Amino acid sequence: MDKLVNFEFWYGGSFDWGPIIQYVGGQCKIFENIDVSTVCINSSKDISVEVGESSEAKYWFICPNKTLQNGLTNIVEDGDIVMMLKAYASLDNVVLYLENVYIPFIQFDTRENLDYEKRIVESEFNNDDVNLDDEEHILEDENEVGAEHDSDAPSSVLGDMEGTRDEDVQSSINDTMTRRE
Q1: How far is Cα 13 from Cα 25, in angstroms, rounded to an integer?
Q2: Using one digit for the tens of pLDDT, what is the confidence trace for 163-178?
Q3: H-helix or E-strand containing 84?
């Protein structure tokens, strides 16, 4: 068995990269007596899952006797783990940070979304007071969409198949914006 170390593992927060780097909103859990010969990038991911965080995160450590400003180092691969363990070779406590990586939800415009947006533009263009939340109105439009297409493909694909569908919507939006100016 190799040397045993304690991991001071900060999680649940994120870095504020302002003029002074800070880790905000997190909490700390100490993992004691970790055999350094068993530490790898996957063990960091296992620790993340154990504390209820995503394994898809960024991992960081602070070089000994340094601050967040001048010693924060990103852990990407096992080579970074080896470098970290060498830096902490004479110490018993290793300081690690986890920063979740949030992947933004990308919403594809479906045919229904474009129809809804077009109705908004058309109602503004015609100065109509159309109640777009009216269930009967929405159901009628959904039935029309179902009759026209059997596909749930994104609108850009349908637009290519239909020719100028996307251009018509964009043209209506541009016309409305021009009138407002």
Answers
A1: 4
A2: 445 566 566 666 655 5
A3: helix 78-87
Q: Comparing 2 with 92, which gets the higher pLDDT?
A: 92
Whole-angstrom distance, CA of residue 82 vs CA of residue 75? 10
Nearest alpha carbon to residue 93 among 43, 31, 40, 15: 31
Looking at residue 28, which CATH number applies to its domain? 3.10.20.90
Q: How many CA atoms lie within 13 A of 135 on its CB side?
A: 0
Give residue 142's domain range: 111-180
Distances (CA, A) of 134 to 23, 115, 122, 138, 147: 47, 14, 16, 6, 20
Residues 76 and 129 reside in one and the same domain: no
Gap between the Cα atoms of 94 and 91, Å rounded: 8
**Is residue 156 pLDDT above 70, yes or no?**
no
Number of folded domains in the chain?
A: 2
**Phi, psi (5° rounding) for residue 59?**
-115, 140
Looking at the structure, do residues 85 and 127 belong to the same domain, yes or no?
no
DSSP string, 145-167: HHHH-S----HHHHHHHHSSHHH
Q: Strand, helix or coil at 89?
A: coil
Which amino acid type is present at position 8? E
